[in-house]
Amino acid sequence: MMGRLRKVYWVIAIASVLFLLLLVSCVPFGPKYTTEDGYNALNSGDVEKAGEAFQDVLNHDPDNPEANAGMAVVEIYKLYKDYHQDLQNLGDFKTLTRSLSPETLRTSLIRGIFAFSERGVRGFTRDEGEGDLDTFLSKAEDAQRRLKKVEQHLEKAIEGDFSYKLYLNRFDWDCDGKLEPTQPLVLREIEDPSKVYKAIDILTGKVTPEGTLVVDPEGGDAWFDFETLLEGKDVSVVFDDNDYVILDKGFFSAFLFGVKVVLVPLDFILTWDLHLPQDVPEFSNDDFATWFTETYDYIDKDRDGRIENSNGTNEWEALSPFLEFTPQGADNLKSAVSDMEMALKALLWLAEDIEEGTDPHDITSSNYIKELLDPETKEDIEEFLNTKKLSLGEEDSFTIGVEYDGAEWRNATVTAINYGVLYSNSGNFSDLKGFFPEIEATVINGEIQPLTYFKLPDPTFGGLFELEEEK
Predict the structure, then answer these.
(1) Structural domain of residue 217, as residue ranges?
(2) Is residue 194 part of a domain?
(3) Strands 398-404 and 186-189: what pairing?
(4) Is position 173 within any domain?
(5) Cα–Cα–Cα angle for 259, 81, 193, nearest 5°?
(6) Residue 157 domain-assigned?
(7) How many domains does one find in the chain?
(8) Is 313 helix (H, G, I), strand (E, B) or coil?
């Protein structure tokens, strides 16, 4: 009996050893791909394979600068591919910025606020149905998350000392599933689809579109011609193997700066809730006076003709949860400040990397940038990085209305913006309605009259502004 059991034990032991040996033989001890494989795939238009190669290297060496650099390119292209159609709607923000002009805000503050929450978001999403704001915010959250992943790759890429060629026309820019590196990328106007333009003609200034542009999938993928764009030659455009740029520390410093510039507004947008109460009167441009009256009455709960924000009473709270912190609001606000700082650091890194260039394909060399930052600008950037405060000179300072009694305005000049308080005292900004003014306005015969009373509860906006009151 014991002899048979001993034989069984030996069979099990041998089988276990053979299984473990087989298992171990299947586990790679090093990366399957190299960074060279990744860049070769990238320059042949196979972004998926490039991403697989770079990720394989990063799995074994997370800090590898070359692989992080390549992964940043892969991730930003995927972001473009997923959202390139939405980029066409950025043109509608011209309307939004007009809605938020100082003149508009002073004559009708409520109109400006609602223009941002309703008209601005709808213009971006092109969705007039319910949930368009949620669609916009969902896209913003996804873009923020993915861009933060890109920035992590870029910060590690900048630490390296390397250079690679990147052929910009070897990507599927029109997202039609085909690579067409010698056929021009074409854009058309949304307002008039018959108006089409080659991207290279726009970049070289040969044509100036007036409408909002979108990529036309009927075109090709080529938009970068080295000879005409970088060398400035007045020659016929030919897309060929000379159309590439050099990826190096300067390129990725500029790349990081661009990512941060996009992240800052995303951070701010995701800091506060943009949802209005369900029973707020629906915005109407066609009968704005009626809408204004109904909305004013909605906010002015005691119907005394004045929207109050003093002595512990803030009738603007009727708009809650509008402009209150989202669950990640405090973190996003701090992130916005950090992203501003990193953007400026990237500029300093780029300025340091500008050297005498021997390769004209190095777009961050002295071939194209003689002096990125003058000494005074560098000093201002370093001061901001040390203090988180932006001092405004005489040309940059601006005036805000502090109080109006119906006859005369009391104004103050903003001499500095202290971004540090957004980071160190983020809780002060958990509800922006706390900074909304106390106002009094009327509608007579369907016409909105100028404000008869206006007063800011805190002209410094929680210490964000440093003021000098006008005498």
Answers:
(1) 168-243
(2) yes
(3) unpaired
(4) yes
(5) 110
(6) no
(7) 1
(8) strand
Distance CA 372, CA 33 (A): 38
- Tell me the two tokens of residue 350: 């780029």
Q: Supply angle C-alpha 296, 300, 306, rounded to 5.
A: 90
Per-residue pLDDT of the chain (471 residues; tens, 9 = 90+): 445 444 444 445 555 544 444 444 444 456 788 999 999 999 999 999 999 999 999 999 999 999 999 999 999 999 998 887 665 554 443 443 343 344 443 444 444 444 444 444 444 443 444 457 888 889 999 999 999 999 999 999 999 888 899 999 999 999 999 999 999 999 998 888 899 999 999 988 888 888 888 899 999 999 999 998 877 777 889 999 999 999 988 899 999 999 999 999 999 999 999 998 888 888 777 788 888 888 888 999 888 889 999 888 999 999 999 999 999 999 999 999 999 999 999 989 888 877 666 688 888 888 777 778 888 889 989 999 999 999 988 888 999 999 998 888 999 999 999 999 999 999 999 999 999 999 998 877 767 778 889 999 999 999 999 999 876
Element holding 414 (H helix, E strand)? strand 409-418
Q: Is residue 178 part of a domain?
A: yes
The answer to whether the Cα torsion of 303, 304, 310, 316 is positive or negative is: positive
Joined tokens for residue 402: 């502090």
Both tokens of 126, joined, read 């092109």
Alpha-carbon distance 398 to 72, whole Å?
39
